[in-house]
Amino acid sequence: MQQILAQNRHEKRKAQNRISQQQFRKRKEQHVKELEDRVKELESQLVDQTKDLKEENTQLKGTIKSMETELHTLRGAERAFRVAIEKLQASGTAISMDTLFPHSPAHSPASGPGHQVHTPNTFRTTSASPYQESAMFDDLPTSMDGSPHKDAASTISSLDYHTSSSSTLGVERLSPKIETMVAANDESRFEHKLDPRILAGEKTLTMEQVWERIQEHPRADDFDFSILCEEFKNMAVCSGTGPVVFEQDFDKAMDNLGENFMSM
């Protein structure tokens, strides 16, 4: 009898152990599955974040390129403007608003030489009280010499800022011949001729794309980058938005490099 009871207790313990092990395995599998799902979720988030960062990086590169192009244009404009003024000063020509802005619509074409033209003063306030000149204009003369042979510095320093209700700025008009000459000089400095291969639609590579392709080359570690940079610098042409290299020229240069390594 005791043997039968002992055997029953042993069977019960075995059954309980089996149930406990089954529950443990079930909890373990569930926990592993939750961890795997979490890993997949994190990987998906990482892919999305990486994609967003790449897109943002591309947009920033495009912005930098457009800003560099704009900066280059502004520098060219500043140089052209400065050279034009220096030439006028050297020739003893009086500088006026007509000389600096020959196409300004504020001047009437019917105005003859020596005729004084009034334009609205951009410094006029909108209040009803009369305009009060600021201290920065206190040292300026209150009259303007009409002599056409006055040098540029004298003419500029003699601008008359009126304090009447109309508040106009007196400017001296030059002959149409000088205006045309200055305008032609300035416009010729902004002529931008693209390479005929660009206009023909030939495929090009930006400097970033050139660098990426060089890095992908199996012998990239053996390249002399100073020679490479000089070679691609000579190949580069202006596309209107930045320097580029024609893909055909790039491939030819890389093929030549590969042949040189093979012969070594």
Automatic annotation (TrEMBL):
An annotated GO cellular component of this protein is:
RNA polymerase II transcription regulator complex
Q: Which domain of life is it from?
A: Eukaryota
Q: Name one GO biological process term.
A: cellular response to stress
Q: Where in the cell is it found?
A: Cytoplasm; Nucleus
> Which InterPro entries does the record match to this protein?
AP-1-like, bZIP, bZIP_sf, TF_PAP1, Yap1_redox_dom_sf
Annotated BZIP domain residues = 7-45
- What ranges does the record give for the region Disordered, renumbered to this chain? 1-30, 102-163
Task: Tell me which UniProt keywords the record has, alphabetically.
Answer: Nucleus
Query: Which Pfam family would be a valid example here?
Result: PAP1
Chief localization? cytoplasm
Output compositional bias ranges, type Low complexity. 102-115, 154-163
What GO MF terms are annotated? DNA-binding transcription activator activity, RNA polymerase II-specific; transcription cis-regulatory region binding
Give the compositionally biased regions (Polar residues): 118-132
The molecule here is called: BZIP domain-containing protein
**Species lineage:** Eukaryota, Fungi, Fungi incertae sedis, Mucoromycota, Mucoromycotina
